[in-house]
Design a protein that fits this description.
The protein has about 500 residues and is of the alpha+beta class. The protein has eleven helices and 13 strands. The protein folds into two domains: about 5-60 and about 455-490, no CATH class; about 70-440, no CATH class. It has a four-stranded antiparallel beta sheet with strand order 3-4-5-6. A three-stranded antiparallel beta sheet has the order 7-8-9. The chain is rod-shaped and about 140 Å long.
């Protein structure tokens, strides 16, 4: 081998080592970037003249692990949002031991009513019973406001999620176009591929997705329900926010290119991601709890209704201690949407607005001027029949709508307790699901990082090997240079 050939080989080795070192340095600089995939400089022998060169730079990938991480992220975000919303709903019951839940307040009201029945002449006992009833009605009002507030927040969050999805799809369209257009050139696409995977990862947090790779590094994205989100161009994701909610009002669906992906009418519904979590809270979980609250309120109004006490009753039953926005009608046997938001203690018995607390004992709360609804026609201060009748009604099972999802023939106390238990179990289950899915996401991310991420120890080991290789090549160049000097001096 001639000295010139040897020098060329040594110089090519130096250039290759320099290129490899640059790649390693880039890897180390991106050590803390979770969306960076490790690069490897591939060295190949030169066909003519000997020596080596960097033939390509490979980006570490693992489609299976990346897909697993996307799925895990979608599920984790969905469960996280559901758990957070159920935590907010839990404010309606708080700690049952603190006595602020509807079920606890029913118990307190029942106790106050019992004390009043034992001393029907005691105005203080009467006032306490009415105050307990007012606290119960107010708690149901507040709970309804909380539930509808949670629904409104979920609806607003859906709008924000849709905005993020559209923004991500727009960025994906730009990056994907560059990748496809430059795939057949000698350009380095690795940075763009990193960007695309980052966008896809962020998109999966908002909505469950499936990806399909095509020729020229092209990518197609579908929702987990099968609707096309991206194919060469971004599909329009649309949503009309509802704003304020009341019981019975349904929120609007999210559409992808005109196809609904949330709501009962969606045939290709999305099943994961934040969007699915928000929709589940707004359309299913919160309305279910609202129906239970409405049944508690309806049960109270029905239980404390007043009947015509005439010898030949001809008048309809009317709301008594508890009334509502639909009075003087008494609610029937089915859920009345929003009745928990309008239930209140009748003003005629409420001392806070000039009412007479003794009407709870005597009857005629609905209309003191109508003697047909008076139970204590003698006006006796020791009359307790009506109070004991109400206590018996409170302890007697009554019918509840099956649509509420709880017992259909139980006492008010048991129904309200079952509602609190339902909410607690839903929250506990959601929290458990959120913790479990977060663990799966962490493990999926670690598994992917182990394959495609940067390991500092490995990079430093390779760097040391390259340093020794560089020193050897540099020494060879120096030796050949000395030999050239010797030859030239001999001429």
């Amino acid at each position: 081998m001639s000295l010139s050939a040897g020098l060329n080989i040594a110089r090519s080795a130096l250039a290759a080592v320099s290129g490899q070192t640059a790649v390693i340095s880039r890897n180390i600089s991106a050590l803390n970037d979770p969306h960076y995939a490790r690069r490897t400089a591939n060295v190949a022998s030169l066909v003519s003249g000997g020596g080596v060169e960097i033939s390509s730079i490979t980006r570490s990938t693992d489609k299976v692990l990346f897909t697993t991480k996307l799925d895990a992220a979608s599920r984790a975000m969905m469960h996280e949002e559901i758990a957070a919303s159920l935590d907010a709903l839990e404010n309606t019951i708080n700690d049952p031991n603190l006595g602020r839940s509807p079920s606890a307040l029913i118990g307190k009201f029942n106790d106050a009513l019992q004390l009043y029945a034992n001393a029907p002449h005691d105005v203080t006992a009467a006032s306490s019973a009415v105050a307990a009833a007012a606290n119960l009605a107010n708690a149901l009002n507040d709970a309804t406001s909380t539930v509808q507030g949670v629904r409104a927040q979920a609806d607003a969050d859906m709008a924000s999620s849709v905005d993020r999805i559209n923004s991500l799809l727009s960025r994906l369209e730009d990056v994907n176009a560059i990748i496809v257009s430059q795939s057949e050139t000698a350009g380095d696409l690795n940075d763009y591929l990193d960007q695309r995977e980052k966008i896809i990862s962020e998109l999966s947090e908002e909505i469950g997705i499936k990806t399909v790779s095509r020729g020229r590094n092209d990518l197609v994205v579908y929702t987990d329900g099968g609707v096309t989100l991206f194919e060469s161009r971004a599909r329009a994701v649309t949503f009309q926010s509802t704003g304020a909610f009341t019981a019975g009002i349904e929120g609007n669906a999210v559409y992808v290119d005109g196809v609904p992906v949330t709501g009962d009418t969606a045939g290709m519904k999305t099943h994961s991601g934040r969007l699915a979590g928000y929709a589940a809270v707004r359309d299913t979980l919160a309305p279910a709890y609202q129906s239970q609250l409405d049944e508690v309120a309806r049960g109270l109004i029905v239980a404390f209704r007043e009947s015509d006490q005439s010898a030949a009753p001809a008048l309809p039953d009317v709301p008594g201690l508890f009334t509502w926005s639909g009075a003087p009608a008494t609610p029937g046997g089915a859920i009345v949407p929003g009745i928990a938001g309008s239930i209140k203690v009748n003003a005629n018995v409420n001392p806070a607005v000039g009412g007479n607390v003794n009407l709870l004992r005597d009857g005629g709360i609905s209309n003191p001027a109508n003697p047909a609804y008076v139970y204590n026609d003698s006006g006796a201060a020791g009359f307790s029949d009506r109070l004991r009748e109400l206590l018996d009604i409170m302890s007697t099972p009554q019918g509840f709508d099956t649509q509420a999802g709880l017992g259909t023939n139980v006492t008010l106390v048991k129904f309200a307790g079952a509602s609190a238990g339902w909410l607690e179990e839903a929250r506990r289950s959601a929290t458990s699901d959120a913790d479990y899915s977060a663990t799966l996401l962490n493990r999926a991310g670690s598994a992917l990082s182990n394959v495609t991420g940067v390991n500092l120890d490995e990079e430093m080991t390779i760097m040391l090997e390259l340093e020794r290789s560089y020193q050897a090549s540099a020494k060879l160049v120096s030796t050949i240079d000395s030999m050239f000097d010797t030859l030239l001096a001999a001429v």
